[in-house]
Design a protein that fits this description.
The protein is built from 21 helices and three strands. The protein is globular, with a radius of gyration of 21 Å. The chain has helices at residues 3-11, 16-28, 33-37, 40-57, 64-70, 72-78, 85-104, 107-125, 128-134, 161-166, 178-194, 200-213, 216-228, 236-254, 264-286, 297-309, 311-314, 325-333, 337-345, 356-372, 379-392; strands at 143-144, 150-153, 158-160.
């Protein structure tokens, strides 16, 4: 079904607004500033209640294979004897929520709503630049993220006080930092790409937003997705040249002095992510079958990291932050984690024709996206994995009531 057909049919569909609201809730429940400000557990439970209400209002049913696969999330929560009970309860709520959600909304429709919401947030967030330039403040209460960073509240987006004070021109939308916002922009771009909703104007918009956000890994992910469609017709030399040129443009746009790219902060960020991976990799090797327990990063990964890296290295400017979402998830749940990683990285939805090599490019883009921002413990991860499972089962267009 084409996007145009979906748009026309949805105008006549009484469920359109409720479905749009459900997608908005999923986005906000994925660690947005509202999610962090008003209580993570409260927001998760509220989303569950709304999805539950819509599910029964529309008299939907659940396929048994989706139900069984969905409850694999619960299995990985308790497979280790050291599982965290709070993590298990939240996983139960998220799993039931998503199982109902994918019975309510077809994935193409979900992706369409998702992209519209993210592009709207991105567009209005451009106002971040004049706000920083003129050092404006909001009369509303501040957003305060879990890491206690203060953001000026402009309802549809937040602006870090630190960025205003020091003239740091980067956009973070409704999330705690720019890289987290680019995570959602990358997923939106992927959805539009896979369903052939991109044109020159929208592609330019995504690239400009990527530059305004200022995320190197985010731009790399978008480049990989763009290359995935025609990669079989490109030779390696042309591919390398293209990547170099695009990154050179990015560097010129983002920095007044290109050498700043290699300053201490950037080096520390790269080293911090390397430490994250190193800790997860070594913890996985210690217990590859069942992992060290979902939700036990603070109790186990931090002490392990201090022993592995040494106190001084761990608490240096390159302190690990646990941003390696996929590798951390696998190290916590063991070998079963690779099943979820496969469905996350190799979705089978979309209408665009892509070669096997192109699919690998998309997988690499998703790996970079999820392993530089830790969203594997949030509902967006469950949503993408379960929708991908449905796509492999041929259920993407299934809409049986």
């Amino acid at each position: 079904m084409s996007s145009g057909a979906i748009n026309r049919s949805y105008i006549k569909n009484n469920h359109a607004m409720s479905h749009f609201f459900l997608v908005l809730l999923i986005i906000l429940s994925s660690k947005s500033l509202y999610f962090e400000m008003f209580g993570t557990n409260i927001f998760t439970i509220f989303t569950f209640i709304i999805v539950f209400f819509v599910f029964f209002k529309e008299k939907k049913t659940i396929r048994i294979d989706v139900l069984i696969f969905g409850y694999l999330f619960l299995l990985v929560s308790i497979i280790s004897l050291d599982f965290d009970i709070k993590t298990f309860i939240l996983m139960l709520i998220k799993t039931i929520t998503v199982i109902m959600l994918i019975s309510i909304i077809k994935f193409e429709v979900f992706s369409l709503h998702y992209s519209k919401i993210i592009k709207f947030i991105a567009f209005v967030s451009i106002l971040t630049y004049p706000i920083i330039f003129f050092k404006l403040s909001s009369p509303l209460f501040n957003f305060i993220s879990i890491d206690e960073r203060i953001h000026e509240n402009f309802i549809l987006f937040g602006v870090l006080d630190n960025h205003i004070a020091h003239g740091v021109y980067r956009i973070n939308g409704l999330w705690w930092e720019p890289g987290a916002f680019h995570f959602f922009l990358t997923i939106s771009f992927l959805f539009d790409f896979l369903y052939e909703r991109l044109n020159k104007r929208s592609t330019i918009f995504y690239i400009i937003m990527s530059l305004l956000i200022g995320s190197t890994t985010g731009l790399l992910s978008i480049i990989l997705i763009l290359l995935s469609k025609n990669v079989s017709r490109l030779n390696l030399i042309k591919l390398i040249y293209l990547v170099i040129i695009l990154f050179f443009i990015f560097l010129l746009f983002k920095y007044t002095n290109i050498s700043n790219k290699f300053d201490l902060d950037s080096s520390m960020s790269l080293l911090s992510r390397y430490y994250d991976f190193l800790i997860s990799y070594n913890m996985f090797l210690e217990n590859p079958l069942v992992g060290y327990g979902l939700g036990n990063q603070i109790e186990k990964a931090i002490p392990f990291g201090i022993d592995l890296l040494g106190y001084n290295s761990y608490f240096s400017l390159a302190k690990p932050t646990g941003s390696d979402g996929i590798t951390m998830f696998i190290s916590q749940v063991g070998l079963l984690g690779f099943i979820f990683a496969f469905f996350l990285l190799f979705p089978n939805y979309g209408s665009v024709k892509i070669s096997t090599l192109g699919r690998c490019f998309i997988a690499l883009a998703l790996l970079i996206t999820f392993n530089t921002q830790n969203f594997t413990f949030l509902i967006i991860f469950n949503v993408l994995v379960l929708y991908s499972f449905s796509s492999w089962r041929g259920l993407v267009y299934h809409d049986k009531s």
